[in-house]
Fold:
Amino acid sequence: MGLYSEAAELERKGVAFAVVTITNTEGVVPRKSGRMLVSEEGEIFGTIGGGEIEYKAKLIALEALSDGKCRCAMITHGEGNNVSVFVDIPEHSGKVIIVGKGHVGNAVSSLFKSIGWGVRLLDRNADVSQLLSERIDRKTAIIIAGKAGASLISPALSTEAFYVGLLASRSFRTIPDKRLYFPIGLDIGEETPEEIAISIAAEVLAVFNKRPASSNRDWERNLVVVRGAGDLATGTIVRLVKAGYKVIALEAEKPTVIRRTVSLAEAVYEKEMVVEGVKGILVSTEAETRRALDNGNVPIMIDTDLNILSSFHPAVLVDAIIAKHNLGTRTGLAPFVVALGPGFTAGVDADAVIETKRGHTLGSVIYSGSAIPNTGIPGNIAGYAAERVIHSPARGVFKGVKHIGDIVRQGEVIAFVGDVPVTATINGKLRGLLHDGLSVPDGFKIADIDPRGEEADHTTISDKARAIAGGVLEAIDGWFCK
Structure:
């Protein structure tokens, strides 16, 4: 147990060490088994036999500490006598080198020791050679206290240390370098040495763990839950993500979107979907959702009943289902509720409603009243309206023949519903097509043809979706500012 105690003490002090273990022997050797520790300072704890064997093993261990790599080695002890060893370098959680033994330096030292970090506390008059004689790797933080240590900033920044901070008055002028944390610590209104230590430790840990140095409450402060991930909803999701919001999208178990190449809802079928650089990932658990958000992605969750609100508390809820009627959204589900299109009244079941009908008011924000009622007639594109949208001629299982992006001609078969063929109603580019294998009723929307043909873009978000997304962003940003 003595060796383990020594290892724990070295770890507590922030002293790197290697563990040398005998793995095999040949011939006459002092010991057939044994283990020892070699610190970065050359101290030995334990033994593998003493004498020449131990000396050679120590040199091998110091080399391993220098390059940070474990290794196997054979030590010869006279003809035919060999000792094979394995040199291991244990991982350490983190190490902090503090230059300055003042009140704050001591408080920082005590705090890091209490969380199991290695600590090296140097005198405030330590010079460059003393600092660089310490073992500094990518798990090392360097904190320089006082103006007197300013000469150590450049040498510290030249090391592999993941964090270099200067503890000095805000009025102190130092080298302009984005890698230097100055003023040091998080702003928590700190005054006493102990409070300053907490501020510094919190910042160091945030950098070490690659986390934004913000309040845990802020994690959900810019969280938006969007109901729906079809093409219009995706336009909104992409705009919000690129504006810096975290977005969770909710979808049905079998989405019936047709403009699938620009709909994150496709992730329900394909597990992942990317639209204009924003990736949607199908998730099923809270942990997966948080992981996706932390990685800058959009978690797509199958949830039509808003069960997610029991685990997450978004600042904003956006109903982007475009069902033309309300499917359960109401004010109070989130601090701010936005709804797209007909079926909602601002001030009644949503805080803001976005106009979705093509025309002069498309994308406008309504704070009192409703969007223009649904006419049932698609917007006019190149002289075509109702003709460009295709509905199922029968009830049955859908199976596409053509693909989104194909140029089709009027009367050409593009799909089947059961055994009934579905033909193109006009000439143009197939911009939308239902996912194969879905059961559809008679009259269900299953395809969309753009009469502009090759000029039509089926791979990027539409002008209509962008206009609506702009309205949503305006409403949310306006609410946050207020």
